[in-house]
User: Which sequence fits this backbone?
């Protein structure tokens, strides 16, 4: 008798925002390798043939959907399109995000609003709309990609830290409110990961050395697979009793 792996996502459908690069791309591929059909939420639907081919090579289906998370109407439409194509939405990964760096004294209202919209407002309202579909099915998993910036203070990143801290608490609030509907909500909070989004900062040898020192236990920069694997775990039956949690993937930074 063969027992299914608790990490098996066969027959499920996942939507990943910001799926074309970095953590989003790695997560989309990891979910496909675990057996899920994957909708790739991207701002520009052109030029993703290689990623689509890699997902199909895992033996599942791929769908590219136009999704700019700051366009909430478009985000809701992308969720609906995913459900129409695959019949359900079982997993939502709110991956898209980012910050505008600079001293807190210099942050403009426009910059603050932009960071809040990209990271926090989008996470709330896309989760809300996904939950309407998940509630009808009686199950679902939402994984928010937060940041260690939501757990510790990073100089020059005040608006980003605030936005990600809000995502962390939003994760708990939604988990408690939607648990009776069979919807689990968790978050991952990575440290600095080697992606195209961090390459400029990490190319500075002084900044890189300081970052490695602050990653207090392992003293190295992470790679995308070390985050995507945790997302798959939280989305999978292996985590069926886990909800409302923020998993720090930080090499020990916040343990110091």
Assistant:
């Amino acid at each position: 008798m063969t027992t299914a792996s608790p990490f098996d996502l066969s027959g499920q459908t996942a939507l990943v925002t910001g799926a074309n690069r970095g953590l989003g791309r790695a997560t989309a591929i990891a979910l496909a390798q675990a057996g899920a059909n994957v909708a790739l939420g991207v701002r520009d639907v052109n030029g993703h043939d290689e990623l689509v081919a890699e997902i199909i090579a895992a033996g599942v289906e791929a769908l590219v959907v136009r999704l700019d998370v700051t366009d909430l109407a478009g985000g809701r439409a992308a969720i609906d399109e995913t459900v129409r194509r695959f019949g359900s939405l079982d997993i939502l990964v709110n991956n898209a995000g980012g910050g505008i760096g600079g001293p807190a004294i210099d942050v403009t209202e426009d910059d603050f609003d932009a960071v809040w919209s990209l990271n926090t407002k989008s996470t709330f309202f896309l989760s809300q709309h996904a939950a309407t579909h998940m509630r009808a099915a009686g199950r679902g998993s939402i994984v928010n990609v937060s940041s260690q910036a939501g757990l510790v203070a990073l100089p020059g990143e005040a608006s980003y830290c605030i936005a990600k801290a809000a995502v962390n608490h939003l994760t708990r609030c939604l988990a408690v409110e939607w648990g009776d509907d069979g919807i689990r909500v968790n978050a991952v909070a990575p440290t600095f990961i080697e992606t195209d989004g961090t390459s400029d900062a990490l190319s500075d040898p002084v900044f890189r050395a300081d970052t490695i020192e602050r990653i207090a236990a392992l003293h190295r920069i992470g790679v995308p697979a070390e985050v995507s694997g945790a997302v798959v775990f939280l989305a999978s039956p292996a985590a069926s009793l886990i909800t409302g949690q923020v998993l720090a993937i930080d090499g020990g930074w916040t343990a110091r």
